[in-house]
Amino acid sequence: MSEMTETTLLSVHDLSIDFFRSGAKLHALRHVDLEVRPGRIVGIVGESGCGKSTLASSLIGLLAGNAEIVSGSIEFEGQDLARLSTRQMRAVRGRRISMVFQDPMTALNPVVTIGRQMIDIQYREKRSSAEKRRIAAEMLRTVGIPDAESRLSAYPHQFSGGMRQRICIGMALLMEPALLIADEPTTALDATLEVQVIKLLKELQQQFGCAIVFVSHHLGTVAELCDEVVVMYAGEVVERGAVRDIFRKPSHPYTQALLECDPARIKTPTRELPTIPGTLPDLAHPPKGCIFRERCPKAFARCEVEAPADYAAEGAEHRARCHLLDGKARGTA
Amino acid sequence: MSPLLDVSNMRVRYRTAGRLASVVKRMDDPFIDAVCDVSFSLEAGQTLGLVGESGSGKSTIARALLGLKDIAEGSVRFDGRDLRSLDARSFNAVRRDMAMMWQDPVGSLSPRLTIKSLVTEPFRIHGREGRDLDEEAARLLTMVGLAPDFGARYPHQLSGGQARRVGVARALALDPKLVVADEPTAGLDVSVQAEVLNLLSDLQKRLGIAILVITHNLNVVRHITDRMAIMYLGRFVEQGPTQAIFDQPRHPYTEALLSANPEPDPDAAKARVELSGEVPSLRDRPRGCEFHTRCPHARDLCRTVAPTVTKDAAAHTFTCHFPLLPPQPSPR
């Protein structure tokens, strides 16, 4: 199964995840493929309920207790994370893969100083406490907290939201992981702070060289930060490719609709904004055929019976799950 | 014709220490000004957007207008009456003509009431019994694009977009003249957000209501408002026609805010105005121009002297010593 090339850091193949809820099985992720190369920033976009956070949690082994990996593999640095024991996963988590969460207000322990938390996170390292403290202060400086040394003894509530998210990012990078997962890291922040955090992530990525999986529903920040983009809809990856291909030549009707209804793209004021009519399908009983068919303006007979394969679209490594692309895909599929 | 809502020099204060504590600690001024010297007016059928970051005082303005927070200074005239001079009973009568859409669409609906009783609650509160509530519920739900059988459901059975529609229906129940919408699209996906905005625009066109929209989302402001005001530390730093401000902001804070709106285009020219630092505390307002601690163009004058309000044509106002240049007349 493994087609990992040397240049791939993370390779998710055919990943399907079910949630058990009151006797019903919710097929939250279905046949997801994802590749992340070292040092790249990959954005995962989609609307609420599309499975982007489930995918992110599965990469770091933090799925909820009622979730089950039904099929597929998550290859990372020669191991299949989907098959690791709790103990083996613990050795990877925080060290090789770390995570920044959405809400900086609740991600830090409110009754422990920032310094203590940043020292504790280095528990695996054989360093003296003084050395750990020095490294913690240095990281605070790196993420732009002024007066780092003395701020180590401050508690989380003494920092503003933007500062706290900087601290969270610093803590995630403290162990110099190969992969950083950022789940909506700027959603809770104001616009001017969001811009600061995006810029910080970009700078740190260059400094530390880690790859970043950036989960967001904000198309603007994804366009700005990411090298590659994965578009998800109702638990499936419907399109993936380089950021320019996705924004310039969106090939899946869902991606096209999503881009069209973003009011940020519409420069002339209008009081009739485009929408995507219809609602998400019931993931307990996903419809036969294409998952987007019921809301797709371009659906035809084949979409009702056959789930589309991953067809190649225009551009290098640009793929989309839509029958409209069949034919262009000859020779590669 | 006088405007529907006319606010002048409004100041709203919050107490930061209790009465006893402020005496013990010998605080001269145990208050902070959450809203400071704010003036604006809103005509029937028009939409005004209040924009600003967290803590800038946007929601406090809404609360003060609706009588949920006392106004310390200034005057508020609504529909020809001075709201501050009214007693509780006459205020309640006026209050019928003002409706609020709360920020959290699901949280603002009581989880134990059905949708039908939620949308007809305004009739019960304002004593307009005698109407057929079933009929009213069906009318309101249809108006916001929900099937009448939604009336039997409970809030937890709704999606975010549907809950928002119920919020709109509640707000419109009493045929208000003014709707105050606090972050009407917060937490909604872009496709649903567009539906809600279209619904608001459509209802405004049909019913001629005035809307005050509070949001930090500039994309929303651009599409649904006629005029906009930008707030910083409880003050308006700029106010004017939405299109004019988007074309050429005059205040550096507006410029920074507009440019901090990432374009969904990887090749967009990123002429970004970056602000250093964070918003100062309301307890310790900077001297001079309150924006000078973060302003990329700040000069010595800004650090000592507070700028006054400048007004150009089209009632575009801004508070800055060194405003950005106005647009050059185009050669065409």
TrEMBL record, chain B:
Subcellular location: Cell inner membrane
GO MF annotation list: ATP binding
PROSITE patterns: ABC_TRANSPORTER_1 (PS00211), ABC_TRANSPORTER_2 (PS50893)
Main localization of the protein described in the UniProt heading: membrane
Keywords: ATP-binding, Nucleotide-binding, Transport
Family: Belongs to the ABC transporter superfamily.
ABC transporter domain: residues covered: 18-258
SMART domains according to UniProt: AAA
Highest taxon above the source species: Bacteria
Name of the protein in its database record: ABC transporter ATP-binding protein
A Pfam family hit: ABC_tran
Membrane-related topology note: Peripheral membrane protein
SUPFAM superfamilies per record: P-loop containing nucleoside triphosphate hydrolases
